[in-house]
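WARN  no MSA supplied for this record, continuing single-sequence
INFO  ligand: iron/sulfur cluster
INFO  echoing inputs
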Amino acid sequence: MVTTGHADSDHFHDECGVFGVFGHPDAAALTALGLHALQHRGQEAAGIVSYDGTQFNPQRGPGLVADNFSSKEVIERLRGHAAIGHVRYATTGEVVTRNIQPFFADFEFGGLALCHNGNLTNAYQLRRNLVRRGSLFHSTSDTEVIVHLIATSLKETVVDRLTDALRQVEGAYSLVALSQEALIGVRDPLGVRPLVIGKLGETWILSSETCALDIIGAEFVRDVEPGEIVIIGAGGLRSLKPFEHASKRFCVFEYIYFARPDSVMEGRSVYEARKQIGRELARESPVDADIVVPVPDSGVPAALGYANESGLPFELGIIRNHYVGRTFIEPTDQIRHLGVRLKHNANRSDLQGKRVILVDDSIVRGTTSTKIVDMVRRAGATEVHMRISSPPTVHSCFYGIATPERDQLLASRYDVDAMAKFIGADSLAFVSIDGLYRAMGEGRRAASGPRFCDACFTGDYPIPLIDAEDGKVSVQLSLLAETA
Ligand code: SF4
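INFO  complex generated
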């Protein structure tokens, strides 16, 4: 999978965000606001399905939440006391309408709308078996695999059928579903992807992140636990734990980059976690310099932590243009180069004659870092030292994060010195894996049972990569070539 077609193609990308509301007359409007707060988790498509007691009302489309859900007419058409919504990051250059979630299907027990954040690692295998047994697929999304598993289950109730379906899947997912009676939320048994419960008066909310609770004034209740199914209906919230117990392996990259800094995940403030990683980085890799400069916006909290710990001044030496969201013109590397210039500009007065420590969250292909280092030098910096608030990203993610193929990851091709040379920095250092765990308050990484999923740094994949090992998919999701 190649993540071209996006201005920020030199980052790992979260593929989706989910949101759900039960028990509010403006459920769709609240869902649109929630999705707006989750926009960083996917900018290529958005969808909402509401239920009004008689029928399900869908609206889906390519583009941002605001592109699809700003008009009064659209929101009014999405009638009902319950709704679920989804934002999606396209994993290929093209967004295909039939892949935009939430999906909806009519079952024996009634309608069910469904969307999820994550990736099933045995989707290809399951799909092949389902097709053999007569299932007809309309999309290339692995969410549809879950829909067909529900359809073919012999269990009675919607929750039993969903549980039956999820027992057959392997993968990392947070799923939100809406039946005629209930809003349902599920996290995979290892809890790799996030999902939280909130309340707004008597209204129940499910969301990928707490920042989307804040936007509608809802209170955070708790995280959905790994392997937990929550069923929210007229009688309140019911919890089931039907899966075999497994140790938690929450995605540590959510703290490093994916989540919004104003979110709280698993009881930890994302902002504080990032500052703490920056402090750890300063302790592990100090350097004689004049100023600490973040690569905005994602490098800001770690740079603050680095500056606090090192005692060096924190300066905004790079200014970000917030109005460059996506570029659609990047068929060549030269244009991608332009994309970086459009997004960032050096603040010359700050950088002139200074020895600069640049702090960023990760290096993926190295293209952005190369341009940024060059930009800072051209602005008059006498030395440029790069510090990265994650360990080297050596492996691809198979758990719902859009990543380049492994051979395109700079850290899988070069050691740290060669990477420094590649990006043109005077020095380069990454926080160590133990430093990352220390920053998360965990002590050293316990090799026999690490607290987080850190597979993109360590290669220790906690969920079997069935399709990938079978040679069926190189990375994830794309079971068929996506064509409009
Ligand atoms: S492989 Fe990396 S990005 Fe993917 S879930 Fe694990 S920690 Fe997160």
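Residues 1-7, 474-484 have pLDDT under 50 and may be disordered.
INFO  checksum written, moving to next record
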